[in-house]
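Listing S7. Sequence submitted for prediction.
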Amino acid sequence: MARRAKRLWTDEEKRSICFQTTAAGVSVAQVARRYAMNANIIFKWLRDPRYVPDPEMAVDDVSTDTPCFLPVEIVDRPRHDNTSSTIDPVPAQNAIEIDIAGGHRLRIIGGYDPEALARLIRGLSA
């Protein structure tokens, strides 16, 4: 069995990970799973004054339970694009394509669970 290499986190990464635990409705375990790490490591960081999130910055203006609208841009694209693109054309029927910050593109074809999709987008945006 191959051993995992020890992951070294920078101080800024530790602060960012600790800050994510302050979001409403988010547990330390959820953040730990996002980074494929043990939650005990995050608890240890939270006890260290260098990484404790600033309580003033941790206040969320928008509750995660409150529905809200997101900006959407509808782009008219030809079905057969002759430009060199790494993305295959998808029929417009039953397809959703979302461009996420950082250059990620999410394409959903067919039915989907809106709650699972929202969790996925939050995970990719983090």
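Caption to Listing S7: primary sequence and predicted structure tokens for the chain studied. The two ends are 31 Å apart (CA to CA). Residues 96 and 108 are 5 Å apart (CA to CA).
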